[in-house]
């Protein structure tokens, strides 16, 4: 997968990569867009496409960030002319299967728990959402601190 080295702006192009681009990477893209738009062009993708998780949309809305217009996508769906400065994997599966990105792309791993897996054993919807909130808050802290 060759990407042309075209710089669209002086901002850093950051890709948040997760397994299904349904939850964690969507949250990271949303926070980066909302909190760091002055220095980042955030993108997200998955090694698979699982669809946008409605619970992720709900807990992000609680935090004042609307990700409802974002879509679940694969790396191949991203604009081919974007040169990424960094690829941040947010789960072990994405880290283990991270595709090749040409050029001097910084690859980093910042693993976060999988909210759907945590919520699978929840006794109520509120308990399930609490798992999402905990991961959401950890992702927000990561975005604020790292960028």
TrEMBL record:
Highest taxon above the source species: Bacteria
Active site positions, chain numbering: 18, 24
The entry's keywords: Arsenical resistance, Hydrolase
Entry keyword annotation includes Hydrolase: yes
Gene3D superfamilies noted in UniProt: 3.40.50.2300
Signal peptide: none
Location of the Phosphotyrosine protein phosphatase I domain: 12-146
InterPro entries reported for this sequence: Ptyr_pPase, Ptyr_pPase_sf, Tyr_phospatase_low_mol_wt
Family to which this protein belongs: Belongs to the low molecular weight phosphotyrosine protein phosphatase family.
Protein name as it appears in the record: Protein tyrosine phosphatase
């Amino acid at each position: 997968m060759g990407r042309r080295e075209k710089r669209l702006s002086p901002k850093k192009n950051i890709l948040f990569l997760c397994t299904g681009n349904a939850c964690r990477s969507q949250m990271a893209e949303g926070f980066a867009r909302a909190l760091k738009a002055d220095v980042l062009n955030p993108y997200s993708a998955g090694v698979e496409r699982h669809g946008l998780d409605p619970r992720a949309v709900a807990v992000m809305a609680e935090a004042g960030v609307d990700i409802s217009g974002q879509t679940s996508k694969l790396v191949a769906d991203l604009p081919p002319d974007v040169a990424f400065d960094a690829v941040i994997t947010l789960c072990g599966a994405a880290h283990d299967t991270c595709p090749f990105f040409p050029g001097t792309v910084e690859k980093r791993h910042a693993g976060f728990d999988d909210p759907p897996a945590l919520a699978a054993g929840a006794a109520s919807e509120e308990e399930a959402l609490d798992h999402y909130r905990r991961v959401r808050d950890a992702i927000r802290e990561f975005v604020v601190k790292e960028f």
